Amino acid sequence: MQQGQQGWIAIRDRPLRGELTVPGDKSVSHRAIMLASLADGVSRIEGFLEGEDARATEAIFRQLGVRIETPEPGARIVHGVGLDGLRPSVQPLDCGNAGTAMRLLSGLLAGQRFDSVLVGDASLSKRPMRRVTGPLARMGACIETGPDGRPPLRIHASNGLQSIEFESEVASAQVKSALLLAGLYANGETVVREPQPTRDYSERMLAAFGWPVAFSPGIARLSGGHRLRATDVAVPADFSSAAFFLVAATVVAGSELRLRRVGMNPRRTGLLHVLRAMGADIVEENAGEQGGEPVADLRVRSAPLRGIAVPREHVADMIDEFPALFVAAACAEGTTTVRGAAELRVKESDRIATVATGLRALGIRVDETPDGATIHGGRLRGGVVGSHGDHRVAMAFAVAAQCATDAVTINDVANVATSFPGFDALARGAGFGLEVAES
Ligand SMILES: O=C(O)C1=C[C@@H](OP(=O)(O)O)[C@@H](O)[C@H](O)C1
Ligand SMILES: C=C(OP(=O)(O)O)C(=O)O
């Protein structure tokens, strides 16, 4: 372990058992703070993710003059300032590790009558921003990027935005949401079309806050000139956090876990279809609704997996689940192929390369392609892997360790707190062998 880094030593312990609730959805938490801040009136958010990414968004809105109270952990009371009530910040706005914060804010701040600067951590500072600044410029926004279209973003005061019809080349909810948020401030109708449908939380939540928005899979449209009305938001548990437990309980023999009240938005549950096609035993129970989102308890029992070709139509619906899926594929019999997932190369790390490198270190053959990989299932052995500062890669290797023959040391895991604070304790409680090691 490198000096000053936090890591894990993970080892197979016992079958995973019990019931657990994973923390609130990150995508919904970001959006709840944003829309509640721009609304007229006071909104209460329940199930807010107490992770660094969502808290970065919260801190930014405080900096922009919004009063946000924390009556108890996981709850927020947001005193909305109305569409034009934000105040400029002299200090840069720090998005930390959160691509969602930076991209959505670029659209929202492009409509303000003041300048803003958005910065991020080392990982976020390497991620591409032209995908949002390009179309926003067509709407009349003036945004300077760092070299090569990377952060920081200097957003100049708006002189008024014009709506556009935009055909996105990448399937990205962040791009779509940035343009819709800019569209709140634009003249006319903003239309976004996507090559594959992506998560529709912005559209659903805008509608819940009373803004007329028309959307169906792959297209969203709204016009400027309305107001947002304060609304209470109940954030469901994050499917992407549940994913690590779905895979772990599937691959560790003798396991049975129940994950309570997991968000089941169909644009998020691609992994469920793929794991089932590989042979997983996952049952949905108590299906219901929470805050306008479908939720269900997921009961998962261990089952042997076989490799498959992941259908391309599921890729966008499981874009954050590939580190976990790669581990499932490593434990499966036969080969699993992933294609059409080049977006993985521009996440918190290059997730194709970082997961492939770690799996190879644990004895698994992985052949990379520019837009995916072929994973040859086999016997995982112990070893040392790095997360490359990527929360989902760290958690995926904690899962991999539960079916490895020896201990796996996972370096650089502090970033897990961005999306899943308390993962290690929850995982240990379910039966993971997982110790924190500090150098
Ligand atoms: O809109 C969102 O909340 C998100 C969209 C996805 O990113 P892209 O839009 O870049 O695919 C996803 O990877 C990210 O974790 C959250
Ligand atoms: C890609 C992710 O988030 P973001 O883009 O917000 O950094 C993620 O959480 O896996």
From TrEMBL:
Q: What is its EC number?
A: 2.5.1.19
Domain (Enolpyruvate transferase) ranges: 14-423
Q: Which reaction does it catalyse?
A: 3-phosphoshikimate + phosphoenolpyruvate = 5-O-(1-carboxyvinyl)-3-phosphoshikimate + phosphate
Q: Where in the cell is it found?
A: Cytoplasm
Q: What is its main location?
A: cytoplasm
What this chain does, per the entry, is described as:
Catalyzes the transfer of the enolpyruvyl moiety of phosphoenolpyruvate (PEP) to the 5-hydroxyl of shikimate-3-phosphate (S3P) to produce enolpyruvyl shikimate-3-phosphate and inorganic phosphate.
This one is known as 3-phosphoshikimate 1-carboxyvinyltransferase
Its taxonomic path starts at: Bacteria, Pseudomonadati, Pseudomonadota, Gammaproteobacteria, Lysobacterales
